[in-house]
């Protein structure tokens, strides 16, 4: 399995709620730079947080890829979601090549859990950072972090 974890691009600092914060023009550029690293990947799914900035990031990535699957919005990819629950959802999907578009602190904690088996070493993920993990199955401590690309 290949798992790609993308943090949304830079977002405006103020909105009516955190969920409504939109990407800045710089954040849009960041998302497109990260999308370029996925150009040759045959993704089975693009899963995104319902927050505006994650939806916009996922849409930019989707638009930059040829033959990308439709974006699926899932409620379990918000900033404060439980990384263990995310792993459970990924297990249930049973897919081989998945892109998650989400937020800190979830993305850093998820990477730590998948690679180290614990939450003690969250991966520092800048806006639009893209992590690539490989493993037989998305289980705590059983995936290896191949690379983290920062735009």
Automatic annotation (TrEMBL):
It comes from the Bacteria. It holds the Pfam family His_Phos_1. Gene3D superfamilies: Phosphoglycerate mutase-like. InterPro entries: His_Pase_superF_clade-1 (IPR013078), His_PPase_superfam (IPR029033), SixA (IPR004449). This is Phosphohistidine phosphatase SixA. It comes from Pseudomonas coleopterorum. The lineage of its organism: Bacteria, Pseudomonadati, Pseudomonadota, Gammaproteobacteria, Pseudomonadales.
């Amino acid at each position: 399995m290949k798992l790609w974890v993308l943090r949304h691009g830079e977002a405006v600092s103020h909105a009516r709620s955190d969920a409504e914060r939109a990407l800045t023009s710089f954040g849009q550029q960041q998302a497109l730079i990260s999308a370029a690293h996925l150009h040759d990947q045959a993704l089975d799914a693009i899963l995104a947080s319902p927050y505006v900035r994650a939806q916009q990031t996922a849409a930019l990535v989707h638009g930059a890829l040829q033959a990308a699957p439709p974006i699926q919005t899932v409620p379990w990819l918000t900033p404060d979601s439980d990384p263990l629950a995310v792993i459970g959802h990924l297990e249930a999907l049973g897919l081989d090549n998945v892109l998650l578009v989400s937020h800190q602190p979830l993305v850093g904690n998820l990477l730590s859990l998948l690679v180290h088996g614990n939450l003690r070493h969250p991966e520092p993920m800048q806006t639009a950072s893209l992590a690539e993990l490989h493993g037989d199955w998305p289980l705590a401590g059983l995936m290896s972090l191949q690379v983290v690309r920062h735009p």
